Amino acid sequence: MYLYMIICIIGSGGREHAICKTISLSSKISKIYCMPGNAGTQQLAENIDLDINNFKEVLKFLKDSKIDLVIVGPEKPLVNGIVDYLESNNIKVFGPRKIPSQLEGSKTFTKNICKKYNIPTAKFGIFEKKENTINFLENSKFPIVIKADGLAAGKGVYISKNLSEAKEAVNEIFDGKFGLAKKILVEEFLNGEEMSFFIVCDGKNFKIFKTAQDHKRVNEGDEGKNTGGMGSYSPSGLINEILESKIINKIISPTLKAIEEMGEKYKGFLYAGLMILDNEPFLIEYNVRMGDPECQTILPLLKTDLIDVCNACCDENLENLNIEWREEKSLCIVLCSRGYPEKFANNVKIDNLNNLKLNNNDFIFHAGTKEKENEIFSNGGRVLNFVSLSNSFKNSRERAIKLINQLNWKNGFFRKDIGYKIIDK
Ligand code: AMP
Ligand code: GLY
To answer: Which of 63, 87, 146, 235 has the most CB within a 10 Å radius?
Structure first.
């Protein structure tokens, strides 16, 4: 039985504010720290301004502050092995270790597992030289998908409509636009609908942790540049029992088996980015964390104490935990800085936030915000997440839009069509 736990959440986005809010509702905690956090987490936790990539400094703070449990939000520290480092120093951490985190950190790592375990995914080729990639492309059908290996923060994926676009992509990747790229992946284009499928895993057993869909493109109708995510909704309209069992049997279970056969265990959230074609799932990518902004729609639906979920995972006791969910439809709209995902201004004051009257089913999760002298300023491209729960996605969307309009932040813009595939069909 856990009581009065001191928790440290690592990260600073909307996902981490949602985690922070959910954990603040637990009766089992006494204090939350958020490292480095944002203006939203500051209202619930103590923000700690440390570089989360400096593991030594992080460890010192965790030891000095007698932290009982660390929850890691973003992928970068996971892929760089923060869990291995902290665990070897006797800190309890929720999140996967370095080798299983390569499911997100290296696309070729994942594709090789897909090949070996027959996991449905787009047909692909892996190349190490520019000339070989271009030779292959000259004999390919278009559109085609070109990806840089390694973490590229949601970028580094090109959908090329013809050979000249494809050549440009290959040049940009090999010229180091996304950091040193030793390998490039060329993939068949899958023309279906995307779904985000989440599980939580304790290294022995796993539980489904809901579905969601997100909108990555900046403009309405899913047009324009890729972003970190303009909005999302949960649950996905695509999910059904047959599809769920195909996802588990053809994708999730073989992946966990592969990790086990490497002598590793997968602990934490696992996010499968899927393409669904005629009720058949194909794996596009894995992420070793919750999605952002999917997390902001999923956590408000969680009835079970999130601290119980994290503890059960760390203690390899997930089998005995029943994860319960609310039935409402949850939808998130991201309010962004004008100009995002290209150039935008920072440090623009956000008035009015405290005047908004939220009911129990409304949540505002901060992402790029900062507090200075009791005032809130923008501090990033994606600034605030407006989440609403109701009996229909349409009502949830209307409510979120109403709140954004009430805020009336002059430097902001947002997509009014989040969830259109499920609302307007
Ligand atoms: P990723 O960073 O791998 O999630 O890719 C970014 C986006 O590119 C995905 O969300 C998809 O919309 C798209 N994408 C990636 N791979 C494929 C594929 N093989 N076929 C179609 N679309 C893809
Ligand atoms: N929602 C996309 C991501 O978190 O990568």
So the answer is: 146
Distance CA 207, CA 317 (A): 11
Closest ligand 2 atom, residue 229 Cα: 1
For residue 177, the model assigns a pLDDT of 79
Phi, psi of 14 (to 5 degrees): -65, -35
Q: Which atom of ligand 2 is nearest to the CA of 154?
A: 5
Atom from ligand 2 closest to the CA of residue 287: 5
Residue type, 215: H
Of the candidates 214, 157, 176, which has an alpha carbon nearest to the alpha carbon of residue 382? 214
Please compute the mean of the pLDDT values over residues 182-209 and round it to a whole number.
95
Contact 7, 68 (CB under 8 A): yes
Please list every protein residue whose CB sits less than 6 Å from any atom of ligand 1: 122, 145, 154, 157, 159, 187, 189-190, 194, 216, 273, 275, 284-285
pLDDT in tens, 376-416: 999 999 999 999 999 999 999 999 999 999 999 999 999 99
Dist. CA 179–CA 173, nearest whole Å: 8
Tokens of 414: 């947002």
Q: Which residues pair with 369 in a beta bridge?
A: 378
pTM over the 0.90 mark: yes
If we measure between CA atoms, which residue out of 271, 259, 288 comes closest to residue 234?
A: 271
Cα 45 to chain centroid, rounded: 21
What is the rounded average pLDDT of the residues 290-308? 98
Query: Are the C-beta atoms of residues 147 and 122 closer than 8 Å to each other?
Result: no
Q: Give 176's pLDDT tier (boundaries 50, 70, 90).
A: confident
**Sorting pLDDT into bands at 50, 70 and 90, what band is 153?**
low
DSSP state of 302: B
Phi–psi pair at 5, nearest 5 degrees: -80, 145
The residue to which tokens 């970190």 are assigned: 228
Given a contact cutoff of 8 angstroms between Cβ atoms, the answer to whether 35 and 58 are in contact is yes
Which strands make up the sheet holding 184-188, listed edge to edge? 124-127, 184-188, 144-148, 157-160
